[in-house]
Design brief:
homodimer; 10 helices; flat; DNA-binding; transcription (chains A, B)
Amino acid sequence: MADEGATSIWMQPEEHERSGPGRRPGYTREQITRTAVQIADAEGVEAATMRRIAGELGTGAMSLYRYVPRRDDLFDLMIDLAMSEIELPDGPSGDWRSDLTLLARQIRAAGLRHPWLIALLTSRPTLGPNLLRVHEFALGTFTGTGLDIDDTTGFVGMLNDYVNSAIRREIGWLEEARRTGLDPERWKRDYMGPYVRQVVETGAFPLFNRSVLDSRTGHLTPEERFRHGLDRILDAIAALIPSLCPR
Amino acid sequence: MADEGATSIWMQPEEHERSGPGRRPGYTREQITRTAVQIADAEGVEAATMRRIAGELGTGAMSLYRYVPRRDDLFDLMIDLAMSEIELPDGPSGDWRSDLTLLARQIRAAGLRHPWLIALLTSRPTLGPNLLRVHEFALGTFTGTGLDIDDTTGFVGMLNDYVNSAIRREIGWLEEARRTGLDPERWKRDYMGPYVRQVVETGAFPLFNRSVLDSRTGHLTPEERFRHGLDRILDAIAALIPSLCPR
DNA sequence: AACCATTCAGGTACCATGTACGCAAATGGA
DNA sequence: TCCATTTGCGTACATGGTACCTGAATGGTT
């Protein structure tokens, strides 16, 4: 091969059904990726080391390098595998609001199933086939609204930003607790809790205090909170679509 | 000390001017943090290892642990130091739109000066004093608009999400190029470029293609692009403030 | 059937990292 | 002068990615 790994993993597809001499591969990229995802789901990405993945498959760490050039590329594959679980209709229904709501809930579900997903997704610029598929669906929901492509990508970006940060908020503390080894209850009570309480009691940041103490949405379930924020974003988008809100 | 590091770094302030026996500290938390920031600015966070920071200070790696409990805490300190550079007026001016514009530009400037900032900030839930200061200012810009605290935090979140993801977009490729060791030109041409071109030529994602090929904003400078997106977010917020846009 | 170029499996090894531990040096009060 | 206390930091260990190399498996060719 001429390309010495100095190219995107998506340019180096796995070759199935080779004909010719040589030992037959005993594993698959997908099998390796799936194993990595399982470990990361259960114990966090940092547990999905090459040795650990290989061990789970009953082989040695170096064997994985026959299928994946570098560990970072495995991250791209994991992201794409998680995105492949997002089920969407064949095409937009014509009602962008309900389509985007469906999409947002699917992404949230995937983000909760795979608590590492959003962190990886936002930490590296990757464009796997399934991310492209989802992105294309999102762009397509605005067909017929008269928006040009720049406004369309802008709105999709707004939605995406909201979904990502909402998911991050929802799992942020839990993940941090797991990473430090404390159980979530202890972490909230012993680690972050006392500090927040101290800040609140100082009274130096009155509006922050109100956002902690006087929040109405704080009593909602995570899903309700997500839906509420999502509706606000969709309201914002609706307000900016000229064909809907003449100004 | 009773607390065995199982508490936030902000709860363990550095003690200056101790009286009593014992050798005097030769370094400072701030000095160490500043060194770490310099290294990270120039060569990326992954270069700011304990050994490297210590080496830069002319000492041994383990000396740092007299000042910082864990490496992760050093990240929190770095974030806060970067946020401390954000200069804001003493209080909101009463014009939320211009205040938030000022704030967004300051954050963008800090994010470009410290390309690791946004990645760290969004990868861990941290609440350093300077982050609180900036957040409080943002919340305060809406005083007088009649918004309740939940709507206020929602809007500040929207702005924050935009600023973060815009900065990430702006430096994403550059950082990735640096991390892989290629210079930016080569990376865009040899690594990501060919793949995007291949995707475009396949024609499987027509709207994605238009977003790549037919973009008007693609010809703007990064700063103009940032401003344009920012104005759209502020438009969206304005459209949702009841006292401004009766519905 | 024998041979061989080709491909995979995976052990060993190297280097870098965070950090626990322990001891020597420095310090100021008694 | 002595000593409890605190800092400086070398040593050591566990864990990580991954380069390199040897041996085993495989299917076409002779």
